[in-house]
């Protein structure tokens, strides 16, 4: 059971107005770190988040308090919203690439810089992806501290789903090989779970080595192409680690109903749920722990 | 696919996931982007000029380049016979006269033509349109439409914002398109454009419109508004029997003293075969491809979208006249 980070970025998929109304407390790293900590005290096993300045600050706050020596991290890269915003401000995709290149160069991470230079000089997208992954894993490790375990680093759904649609098999293989070589389980977040399973079968990728995060809920919210096909794909999958998110269908479902639905799928390894208040954090993970198979 | 930026990748991903579509080529002006594009997608041709698409036997093209280039590119697509069916990302052109010329070209050459006003494919706006058409809230008297984002909030200088052509063409156009779809032909009565990022930039707009049916409306937009992590479009409509509020998340209808009727996206069959970047884009591309395959007209067509350009032109003219 994982505590998710959506509320800490001001996200509510049920209503943007609701996200605005929640106010700024949730984006305060100390407040958010306290919610993560309460969730862990009440049954959550780890923290699932996109790597951004906000979530890295939350990790630093958790690390500073030294309350937890058992924190398991389920990270996603890139933080797509920030990248889209950066592209808007920097003048499109070339501007975004320039900006990211500058950030990597200024990071002083020599492996990232060397890999980036190799990628730029040889027009090699795999080396560029590796440069980016060196950069992200380094800042993740630095913020998380020695006591935390990076359980997985997943590619964000926008990248995963674009790469699936455009048949970018190289991107999946590069990410898997990079993470395995660095002792981290590779992962992929997707809203097209059945499509991903089919592609992985076609490409003969080893399901046993990866983590997949995908929406699972009783109303089929963002389960593409359909709830039935995603459930079928989940049932027939070989042994792997699948984490369900959007289990509350973005606040549309009640927690007990959501818990009853996911309990029907023993092949689900975990679920991720966001919390926005202390009481909410306590109740959510107590209830989920009580419903765990 | 003409252009290889984020909108091109979004549409290319959606189209590639459809069984009936084969993505043949990208056309991209930047040699650096072309070089990496060829490595990233080795099975897809990537060319430098629009004329290089001429011998590929294309059925349809998508134009996803910056708005100021839409007119010359679409004109070349038609006149060089590159493809019969054309999809253009919004806005159609950078002026009303260009939009009119593209409408005439489309009429002359035939085929399906469509402009990427994706909010029309949102299940909530679709529901709202049906509610209005059924007359649920009675005789319409007034409306407020808005389009807000935080894209340039805290940004310094106007240079990056100016490449997008100003908030009226870039963001307010969505609210204008929805207003035209809901209420039919509108005329601008007064308009005020604000520069928040620097002299000459257009960052917030507020204008009043009216219809021949005595409906009055106000359209407001800003890309420097706090709290809009994602752009949001919404409309509030008042009628003789009640009020309707719609945004991308929900539709709410209040009729007299009864509790409001509420529909979230979840209640409105917001399903798509492949999810990327939101469900509206997927339905939009699906609709265009279906029209191409069936030979039926698509909406919003060039002709429909040129009405947005007409309003934008009136706004710009009135705001400069009032300075």
General description of the model:
The complex is a heterodimer of chains A (293) and B (323). Helix content of chain A is 54%, strand content 15%. Chain A has helices at 16-21, 29-41, 53-65, 80-90, 92-107, 110-122, 125-144, 157-165, 169-181, 193-203, 227-236, 255-262, 278-291; strands at 2-4, 46-50, 72-77, 149-155, 185-189, 211-215, 241-245, 268-274. Chain A has an 8-stranded parallel barrel, surrounded by 4 helices. In chain A, helix 11 (227-236) links the parallel strand 6 (211-215) and strand 7. The N and C termini of chain A lie close together (12 Å). The mean pLDDT of chain A is 88. With 323 residues, chain B is α/β, with parallel strands linked by helices. Chain B folds into 2 domains: 6-117, NAD(P)-binding Rossmann-like Domain (Rossmann fold), CATH 3.40.50.720; 119-268, Dihydrodipicolinate Reductase, domain 2 (2-Layer Sandwich), CATH 3.30.360.10. In chain B, strand 12 (250-254) and strand 13 (261-264) form a beta hairpin. In chain B, the strands form 3 sheets. In chain B, strands 7-8-9-6-10-11-12-13 form an 8-stranded mixed sheet. The chains are: A alpha/beta (293), B alpha/beta (323). Chain A binds chain B through residues 9-11, 14-17, 19-20, 81, 84-85, 87-94, 123-125, 158, 161-162, 164-168, 170, 191-192, 195, 219-222, 224-226, 249-250, 252, and chain B through 4-6, 9-10, 12-14, 16-17, 23, 30, 32-33, 35-36, 39-41, 43, 151-152, 155, 160, 163-164, 227-230, 232, 247-250, 264, 266, 270-277.
